[in-house]
User: Fold these one by one.
Assistant:
Number 1:
Amino acid sequence: QVQIVESGGGLVQPGGSLRLSCAASGSFFSINIMGWYRQAPGKQRELVASISRGGATMYVESVKGRFSISRDNAKNTLDLQMNNLKPEDTAVYYCNSWPATFSWGQGTQVTVSS
């Protein structure tokens, strides 16, 4: 059974940066499209960025130009570089396949506040 572990979150001031990382066991990284999702308090979980095995990326409009998703298929890693963070980016961030087919990990909390 695949276990997903997200890390790298924290408290950062507006305009700051964070880099999130995703590690997983099993066959997780053999999946074609992987993504980073987030869930803000009182809101539904949403996909914010995805990347295919070939490197094709997609970003939700609100993070374009600020977030960058990357994966290393050889090292089984999936990262999300987040720059120029805004208070509205505050959420718990998760990684999963797209569409999400694996059990969700605990996520990593990102809080953007002055």
Note: The chain has no helices and ten strands.
Number 2:
Amino acid sequence: QVQLVESGGGLVQPGGSLRLSCAASANIFSSYTMDWYRQAPGKQREFVARITSAGTTYYRNSLKARFTISRDNGKNTVYLQMSSLTPEDTAVYYCHTLGGSGIDSWGQGTQVTVSS
């Protein structure tokens, strides 16, 4: 199982931006597909974005205009750049990977609160 540690969450005003980071403890991080999910209060966890080992990206349709996923294989880190944030983006954001074993690995999550 891959250890994942998210950071970068916090309180931001509507219209603001945040960049989340997820550091992975994996020797072959570059070969892993990495995902971001989020879970708002009282709602199910939902897919946000994915980046493959080749750098191909996928997004939740409603977020693709405002969110960007990227990775730095030299730092074993995946990022989620979020812009034009609204209160509806308030959630705990989780990093996820199946790694090389097909076993789900999740981080502990980082809270993003969008409020004035």
Note: The longest strand covers residues 18-25.
Number 3:
Amino acid sequence: QVQVVGSGGGLVQPGGSLRLSCAASGSIFGFNVMGWYRQAPGKQRELVASIDTSGETTSYADSVKGRFTISRDNVKNTVYLQMSDLKVEDTAVYYCSLNYWGSMYWGQGTQVTVSS
């Protein structure tokens, strides 16, 4: 059974940094895409960043380009989202995701709050 667990959220001041982690476990073999989505109150869930198995193909929302960096450690089946220069508008619940053979698996969500 595939499981995805995200962690690392918290409260940070504008301009600060946080790192989110997403660990996948279970029967995962071959190509997959892992990433982070976020959902702010009253808004739809949106893709923040994603990365494929090789780590060579990444995708970012325009709003985070140049500030967020996604990376992965395939030995640990873990993806990291390094968030820098955080803005108030980055406040949301962040959800880790795994797209594997057309099925989406979601983590439980971790709150990121950017506030002075």
Note: The chain has no helices and eleven strands.
